[in-house]
Structure formats: structure tokens, C-alpha cells
Design a protein that fits this description.
Elements (H helix, E strand, L loop, with lengths): L1 H17 L1 H14 L8 H14 L7
């Protein structure tokens, strides 16, 4: 039982670290707020996210 718990914790951490969980949360929000619109692919999501971050230059330090 402890091993299973440890594996779940490591999996959660790695998903958060790599951004995979963020994409999944985005898909859930997208489906909830725009049920008829197609969900963007992971690549499309990354492009949108990068454009959004670049447009918000005031929040970056460099």
C-alpha cells in the first residue's frame, strides 16, 4: 500500500513539473465553458500559452 501511494505521489509531481497536468486542467475548463468548440491539441495549447506569456512581458523579470 505504501509503494502504491509513493508511486502516485511521484506521478503527480512529475505531471505537475512537466506541465502535463496543466494541459489536462485546461481541457476540462475548455469543455465546461465551450462545450461545442473543439478542444485544442497539446501543440496548439502550447502555442497559445507561449503567445500569452510573451504578450504579458510586464510579469517577466528579464
Amino acid at each position: 500500500m505504501r509503494i502504491r501511494h509513493w508511486v502516485r505521489a511521484v506521478r503527480w509531481y512529475l505531471r505537475e513539473l512537466t506541465g502535463e497536468a496543466e494541459y489536462d486542467r485546461h481541457c476540462e475548463r475548455h469543455r465546461r465553458h465551450h462545450p461545442l468548440a473543439p478542444v485544442p491539441t497539446r501543440r496548439e495549447y502550447q502555442v497559445l500559452r507561449t503567445r500569452y506569456q510573451e504578450a504579458r512581458t510586464h510579469s517577466r523579470c528579464c
